[in-house]
Amino acid sequence: MPADTLSITDNRTGKSYEIPISQGAIKATDLRQIRTDAEDFGLMTYDPAFMNTASTRSAITYLDGDRGILRYRGYPIEQLAENSTYLETAYLILFGELPNAQQLADWDFEITHHTFLHENTKRLMEAFRYDAHPMGMFISVVAALSTFYPEASQIGDADNRLLQIKRLIAKVPTIAAFSYRHSLGRPIVYPDNDLSFPGNFLNMMFRMAEAKYQSNPVLERALDVLFILHADHEQNCSTNAMRAIGSSQVDPYSALAGAAAALYGPLHGGANEAVLRMLHQIGSKANVPAFIDKVKQGDGRLMGFGHRVYKNYDPRAKIIKRTADEVFEITGRNPLLDIALELERIALEDDYFVSRKLYPNVDFYSGIIYQAMKLPTSMFPVLFAIPRTVGWLTQWAEMLADPDQKIARPRQIYTGPEARDYLPMGKR
Ligand code: ACO
């Protein structure tokens, strides 16, 4: 029976060490005992971008990039996208189990009745320029909410924590829609408590003079499916930001504003916008082979292809492709889809992409759907932030309850100058 340990010999000293292995990992702090002498700080690992470091244990989301598997709390993403709603999935992610009928009704009621924003937040939004990016507004308003709910800083109180979580899940669509309306100079539309979570969001985005907004059920469902697909994705850049900021024990509004800021970047929540730009630039199906050749020669990337973790078809991309067909039945076919399908067809047969395991990721088709639903490009990162809110908050709550966690504080390898004396201006 092999031992669950790692034997290390330090060739600098000739000393050997036995390091325990648990769940396929060693503790980085176990390496600290490996020292050249009493003055030595001890051995560290150097891992920029956390390429091979587990920063936490987590029971929320399972991802196997080689096999193209994504599960929330054990449930395959395909089954949730087929059968669940965003609000039910949010409950599952947050509490760990699917709700029964009463729990779901209560949850639905609670979220629906926390959708309103304090009127002062409206005035805060009015202060933004007419062309302010909705994501910049979203981040600012989420951060500002901490001043409306100062009790949110009592993060050790479980009931209080849950109240803030409900508030955030409920209010992010309202903030998102208000930001969009501001960018168009349109009057804001208040939440309608009779509507579903995605239906109310579409209402706040698009209602004009009609007394009651009625969204198309197919589009409403498509949006709900996209929300399910984006609800969590384990330790990605923005989730890591949420946990790192939250580890200082700040309130969840401030931490979530930081997570949303991380999402704003083009390498994370901004990739679907880049896909749309690329499709416009290609212009027609006939130009696809020439574009692929350019990419293969190292001139640009095929946006929406490839993923740090998925080395197989992103399971979310498969679902989105099906959703696109349903949406286009209603909206008419987005002409960009033909270019996207041709790109995918050629790329999946081409050895350059096959040998590098480059497959469509979640962003390859989502932008085309959003565009067909008349959701503008600047709203794409905001549309990502709305459903990811439950993921961020669940990961935050898990972090707070984890006795292994402390304030996040990586080490560094110092490469700067040795100690030196301050030089007066005249001697520099
Ligand atoms: N088009 C062309 N070639 C690519 C692409 C692409 N989209 N992605 C990777 N490659 C190539 C690289 O040039 C490299 O080739 P080489 O070995 O000959 O040098 C090889 O594939 C490996 O690429 P890396 O950059 O090392 O892969 P990494 O895991 O670091 O990058 C990333 C992943 C950033 C997603 C990358 O695939 C990419 O830039 N894709 C396009 C942008 C995109 O769609 N991002 C959205 C990701 S999903 C999300 O965040 C929600």
Q: Give the strand line-up of the largest sheet.
A: 3-4-5
Name given to the CATH architecture of the largest domain: Orthogonal Bundle
Q: What is the terminal-to-terminal distance?
A: 66 Å
Mean residue pLDDT: 95
As for the CATH topology of the largest domain, it is Citrate Synthase, domain 1
CATH class of the largest domain, named Mainly Alpha
**Domains (count):** 3
% residues in beta strands:
5-15%
Class inferred from helices and paired strands: mainly alpha
Summarize the helix and strand pattern as letters: EEEEEHHHHHHHHHHHHHHHHH
Overall helicity: 40-55%
Low-confidence stretches: none
The total of helices stands at 17
Rg, rounded, reads: 24 Å
Number of strands: 5
Nutshell version of this structure?
With 428 residues, the protein is mainly alpha-helical. It contains 17 helices and five strands. The model has no long low-confidence stretch (mean pLDDT 95).
Give the topology:
Layout: E1 5-10, E2 15-20, E3 61-64, E4 69-72, E5 75-76, H1 77-83, H2 86-95, H3 101-112, H4 119-126, H5 134-148, H6 158-184, H7 197-206, H8 217-229, H9 237-246, H10 252-264, H11 271-282, H12 288-296, H13 315-331, H14 335-349, H15 351-355, H16 363-372, H17 380-401
Antiparallel strand pairs: 1-2, 3-4, 4-5
This protein binds acetyl coenzyme *A.
Acetyl coenzyme *A (ACO) is lined by residues 268, 271, 295, 301-308, 356, 358, 361-363.
